[in-house]
Amino acid sequence: MSIHSVLVTGSSRGIGFGLVQKFLESDKVGLVIAASRPSATSELLTIKNKKLHLVTLDVTDDDSIVKAVEQVDQIVGSKGLTILVNNAGILQSYGFTDEPNRDVVNQTLDTNITSPMMMAQYFYPLLKRAADSQPGNTFSSSRAAIVNISSILGSIQLAQSSDNGIKKLLDYSVSKAGVNMVSRILSKDLEAYGIACTALHPGWVQTRMGGEHASITLEECVSKLAPSIMSLTQEQNGGFFDRELKAIPF
Length: 250
Ligand code: NDP
Known about the structure:
Bound molecules: NADPH dihydro-nicotinamide-adenine-dinucleotide phosphate
Low-confidence stretches: none
CATH class: Alpha Beta
Radius of gyration: 17 Å
Strand content: 5-15%
Largest sheet: 7 strands, parallel
């Protein structure tokens, strides 16, 4: 087993749920920890697989994260947590021409930027344990890695008008640009500990967030995204890539 354990946040549906299914199918992965909010009505409960562990986690709630760390500690044991996938996210369709609403914007920033940052900090001891169990100076998703599910809308270089009357993606785009910076800085901060950090854009995917007119199905997304997450190396550390690991400008 080259990847001891993977934790996916926001796994009740959409891309998170699809990733959990792909990791369960993979011979490379030992333990799959599907984290989701308590209120989630989830298809996860119907999956019968010894590799699967369900954990309750609201990524915006520190108490919930601390409890999840304790549970995951028990599940992963001395080999630690190999991959943390910060997938949970929200899109609230907020645009410049809307009534100013600080709460809506802050909620998006809290879920999409602050929470991946907090998750990395709280889960750091378990990730470090995984990295320490494979000494050396290699960076890979087989050793220890944080993957932040970002969006091409967070690319400052590729930025388009976020509110042309149809699109209302101002807070969301800003949040994904922010999480890209989180990824880049963490890749530097964690370099000394052998933990990689990468931002990945999944594509425009048919989920509740992406909508039914999105360009690819969930299967088309996760059949590429999951293997990419499992094969990250030094080359991707600190970078921003699509689901097939083609580089995207920050
Ligand atoms: P969905 O809306 O289908 O699913 C979002 C998931 O995030 C749900 O499981 C939801 O849980 C969970 N979630 C939201 N807030 C929290 C929270 N506070 N704590 C824990 N879980 C939470 O979205 P997608 O699957 O499409 O998106 C997944 C990720 O991919 C997001 O980060 C998104 O920004 C990104 N992405 C998606 C694209 C797309 O086209 N779909 C394009 C680019 C990026 P619950 O069921 O409890 O609400």
